Amino acid sequence: MNDKFVIGIDLGGTNIKGALLDLDGGIIEKREIPTLANAGPEAVAGRIAGMITELEAAVRDTGKSVAGVGIGVPGQPERSTGEVIFAPNLYWRNVPLVKYLRRYTGLPVFLENDANVAALGEQWRGAGQGSANMVMVTIGTGIGGGIVLDGRLYTGSNGAAGELGHAVIEPAGPQCSCGRRGCLETLTSATAMVRMAREALDRGVKTELSKEENLEARDIIMAAQAGDRLALDIVEKAAYYLGIGLGNIINILNPDTIVIGGGVSRAGELLFEPLCRNARANCLDCAGSIVRIVPAQLGNDAGFVGAAKLVLQDNTKKCII
Amino acid sequence: MNDKFVIGIDLGGTNIKGALLDLDGGIIEKREIPTLANAGPEAVAGRIAGMITELEAAVRDTGKSVAGVGIGVPGQPERSTGEVIFAPNLYWRNVPLVKYLRRYTGLPVFLENDANVAALGEQWRGAGQGSANMVMVTIGTGIGGGIVLDGRLYTGSNGAAGELGHAVIEPAGPQCSCGRRGCLETLTSATAMVRMAREALDRGVKTELSKEENLEARDIIMAAQAGDRLALDIVEKAAYYLGIGLGNIINILNPDTIVIGGGVSRAGELLFEPLCRNARANCLDCAGSIVRIVPAQLGNDAGFVGAAKLVLQDNTKKCII
Fold it and tell me: CB A156 to CB B251 under 8 A?
């Protein structure tokens, strides 16, 4: 396989990112184009196929070749048929993406959920390198997760594993978009932090935070870094609940590494100090004493790096013909 | 391997149970003797070795042989050294059990935690037969758990996975023996049910339950089956919290089967109807729609059946020389 390369694609609602990688995960070529989801699934698939062809061209003249393509999608893939069952950001339902891409490119294509490939990417080349059992938690508008066990992506019985954001932590807590109350996502996501800030602003709490419509989690983190009391309290509260959520995951999965990704993870020590403290306080010592909790390293590259790694996994279960 | 057998031992604080099994998990011979833990680790190891020798004798004259011995211990095993690090019911610390048993029997010996082997037993020959991804939750004085993924026991990075009883469900809930508050174990174990009954009795709630010292969870379940309002409320409340705990496990692990073991599981439909309802209400539909939640089938045999199965796992990681 020394003359082989792999291609990873990260299909997002806004952009398609892709790269050609060597078998050690080194990035040879990188591309990014807008998704233009409004043009419909076939057009988007055509754009992805075009990117694959361009990336493949970089090695074609050297006598080397591409072993396959992995693709992460923002939704629910059906690995056995190669269909994207549901991808709300793309307005997709039952799109036979693997069939399209195989027809256009002639390459083996492997489909996976985007949170899962990001986890696999961090485990292969990022903050989880060398980890056997790793959990990635991505904190953004919602909370996503991906699980790598024994060095392989774990996706569960029908691909739904790793829904860490919908663990119920406070049964009487805030309403979640999923219909339940007190999911981790309602207590500790970027959205939750903005909600907490607005509630405090409405109560007239003194703060440097703006009452404007476009208040974002990054504003809260910046204000906390500048010493704003309310913002500090919000970060501490988010870290408290996230610590409970991570503690539960540590008790169940006993991972060696937890990688925290997403914009909120850029808060640095401000978030990680209380987060690590709360996580260890909320699990048994035996498991808590060995787990590293670290920020993600690959940023926006994690998706296509992990997607490329799909090609190199033992494919008895994941391979989609 | 057709002429081979395996031996499984379930070492408990009160009794040692063991059996000789064929490679399909069929029980050929069964033994049970008191542990007599007070006599010390070497004496207990000697009693186990005696049981192994007896069980082995049943095949020795037939030209067949025993491939190995698996043993489940009520505590924390260190698989790499074959020591039992800590087993509070036996008053054991750092007992080199595998070394003892190998010296006495000359057979390969595999060590595991008792909750884990029970899970493996149910997956091999009990309620989880045919399951790829199964979680067993045992509800007794505390709440224990074992996880089987891709048909193999999953024990985590240092053997501490599956501590389902210490998931924090109500951060402001009752004090747990582990030092935290609101662990699943404080809300839904046999102990928790008895505590709820006592609190209600102290408040003077009308019930058939006795105020006597020796009130047990089984009394509450029997009273509930006879229609006692308080007992019914307690079972419903335990099922509510257990449903949240199971919902969280379903969201994380997406198992095809959850097996409920322990005395409380004998409550039947009274427990299982609200339990299944609450579990499915507390996880995402994608994972909730495919999971079966069923009572354990092997009872006290689960431990030695699963212990025997240890011998037949791919032993690259578990083998203890």
Answer: no
Spans of chain B below 70 pLDDT:
1-2, 314-321
ipTM of predicted assembly, 2 dp: 0.90
Neighbours of B19 (CB within 10 A): 25
Q: pTM for the full model?
A: 0.91
Is the pLDDT higher at A227 or at A140? A227
**b/e burial code for range A141-155 (CB count within 10 A of at least 16 → b):** ebbbbbbbbeebbbb
Chain A residues with beta carbon closer than 8 angstroms to that of B160: 251, 254, 284, 286-287
- Both A170 and A263 in one domain: the answer is yes
- Residue B78 vs residues A297, B26, B93, B113: alpha-carbon distances, Å: 33, 29, 11, 9
> Do A248 and B171 make contact, defined as CB atoms within 8 angstroms?
no
- Range(s) of the domain holding residue B76: 4-120+301-310
Q: Are residues B218 and B305 in the same domain?
A: no
Task: Give the burial class of A227: count Cβ atoms within 10 A of its Cβ; 0-12 exposed, 13-18 middle, 19 or more buried.
Answer: exposed
